[in-house]
């Protein structure tokens, strides 16, 4: 029987002047899986 691997999520943010990029990754052991990746457009 194998030991269950701990998993967690990482939120990455790339701030910018007019654009904000983000990514949510799930980490399980040595495996990375993208959950959501996107861009938020800022208005003046």
Description:
The structure is a single chain. With 44 residues, this protein is mainly β. It has one domain (7-41). The chain has strands spanning 7-14, 19-28, 31-41. It has a three-stranded antiparallel beta sheet with strand order 1-2-3, with no helix packed on it. A hairpin with a 2-residue loop joins strand 2 and strand 3. The chain is rod-shaped.
- Give the terminus-to-terminus CA distance: 56 Å
How many structural domains can be distinguished in the coordinates?
A: 1
For the secondary structure, the number of strands is: 3
Q: Largest sheet, order of strands side by side?
A: 1-2-3
Please tally the helical runs, counting DSSP H or I stretches of 4 or more residues.
0
The shape is: rod-shaped
Helicity range of the residues? under 10%
Low-confidence region ranges: none
Rg (C-alpha, Å):
15 Å
